[in-house]
Input
Amino acid sequence: MEIFDAGMSGAESAIARTIKAQEVIASNIANAQTPGYTAKKFDDVLNKAVERSENKKVVMEEELADMAKNSNRYSTYVKYLTAKLGVLRNVVSQGRK
Output
């Protein structure tokens, strides 16, 4: 059994993606009133921000909804990693006895 399995590495990658997505969303919100600014959408598949084709304006409701969904994902991944590390911590502490 591996100590750091694929689930942990996947969660680590997912956390990195949610952090990048949050940066894109925050940029959209910060630039909502900037003339000529086009809203960006974080694209998981390409792992980069791309222009929205359907609406280039920042729609605050959409950005805030995206931010909430992304925050929930981030929390879920962090809880998963915390639980996995708790198990490892328990194994290590039991080995000392």
Notes: The beta strands are 40-43, 48-51. The two ends are 21 Å apart (CA to CA). Residues 14 and 77 are 7 Å apart (CA to CA). Helices lie at 6-30, 60-95.
